Amino acid sequence: MFELRLVQGSLLKKVLEAIKDLVNDANFDCSATGFSLQAMDPSHVALVALLLRPDGFEHYRCDRNISMGMNLNNMSKILKCGGNDDIITIRADDGSDTVTFMFESPNGSANFEMNLMDIDSEHHGIDESKCCAVVRMPSSEFQRICKVLSSIGDTVVISVTNEGVQFSTRGDIGTANIVCRQNINVDKPEESTVIEMSQPVSSQFPLRYMNSFTKATPLSNTVTISLTSELLLAVEYTIAEMGYIRFYLAPKIED
Amino acid sequence: KGVQLSITEFYRSA
Fold first, then answer.
1. What ipTM was predicted for this assembly?
2. Counting Cβ atoms within 10 Å, is residue A211 exposed (0-12), middle (13-18) or buried (19+)?
3. Core-most of A94, A113, A202, B1, by most CB within 10 Å?
4. Alpha-carbon gap, residue A224 to A83, rounded angstroms
5. Which uninterrupted H or E stretch holds A238?
6. What residues in B contact A155, CB-CB < 8 Å?
7. Which residue of A has its CA nearest to B6?
């Protein structure tokens, strides 16, 4: 049997809002490590990795590892049936082809049962050690930059140097360049921009995906953007001390 | 303007 109880149910709603437009179907893996997911968008250009650790739940019981295939749009529909301040319990019996969502508020409770699906998924081990540039910045600022740039062009070039991180695009009406320099705010660390770099790195990515990733902005005040030496982009939002949601994006390369 | 790699292609080429 698998059962988890999340007092701050709105967190799970925000997680679904962050990924449901990027990924259609995904296997939620339940194990002693936590409630996790790894899935790709239909074009296989982006990969999402989610982890919610057991200690972040009021109750977490996982008798054996299970994988629950869910359609994220349907899961989102069910989560929207619960109130924002509701406590959410998710339960699945071993071998069952359904999962139950229970919403509790001081005024009452509601149960929804959703059919599970069989989903073939491809797991990738992400090698974080090849990371050569890491930028931590306010998530709202990153969201604003992606939105602004997508009004000009389709592709963003992200360049990290000693000068800072530069986001550039080009379109029919002209070009745009936005530079963020390191800026440490001791009083409000969440408003800081921190750049760690072992070597300058530059690569280009479709803005459509970047804008999709920023749907996770309500989960965290800060975002961490990493580029590996092989030019894989990782965009990470931490989830209130209980885990993270990471988006990985493959680069555009020259012909 | 370049070719977009998929995650699978990226890991194959990396």
1. 0.89
2. middle
3. A202
4. 30
5. strand A233-239
6. 1-2
7. A45
Give residue A77's Cα distance to chain centre: 19
Whose tokens are 């990733």? That residue is A213
Axis-axis angle for helices A72-80, A10-19 (nearest 10): 150
B4 lies within 8 A of chain A by CB:
yes
Residue A136 sits at the vertex; the CA angle it makes with B4 and A7, to the nearest 5 degrees, is 100
The label of the residue with tokens 């929207």 reads: A80
**What tens-digit pLDDT sequence spans chain A (255 residues)?**
999 999 999 999 999 999 999 999 999 999 999 999 999 999 999 999 999 999 999 999 999 999 999 999 999 999 999 999 999 999 999 888 999 999 999 999 999 999 999 998 777 777 766 778 999 999 999 999 999 999 999 999 999 998 899 999 999 999 999 999 999 999 999 999 999 999 999 999 999 999 999 999 999 999 999 998 888 999 999 998 899 999 999 999 877
Which stretches of chain A sit within 8 Å of chain B by CB? 40, 43-47, 122, 124, 155, 204, 206, 230, 232, 248, 250-255
When CB atoms are compared, the residue of A122, A206, A232 closest to B10 is A232
CB < 8 Å to B2, chain A: 155, 204, 252-255
Are A36 and A235 in contact by the 8 Å Cβ rule? The answer is: no
